[in-house]
Amino acid sequence: MEIDYNHLLNSVINSIENHEITFRQLEKEIKHFLVFSVEEPSPFLGEPAIIVNFHFNGFRKHLNEINKWHFKFYMYSKDRGVRFLGRHEYYPELIKSLYEKIQDIARVEQTMRVINS
Q: What is the pTM of this model?
């Protein structure tokens, strides 16, 4: 059975949504987090490969569904610049990596004190 990281990530964000300080601190801490990196061949023969980095950019509440979030990402490369991914562009690898990062943050003792205070 495949793990639904989108559902897990939505559950985590929903659990802290009403804790404004915790929610904003989390978003601030992971904003611009390098989520995934991929190397693509250059379109020009003999040129080095292009490294494309995917970064987290923020949370946005889904307009039509309760307890559902959009996770905003952008991609960056020296050759192509910045491009923000549309909300309908879904990359499971990005969601999984973001979920794992948030879990790492949640395991830090100081984070748990803030959440439980």
A: 0.80
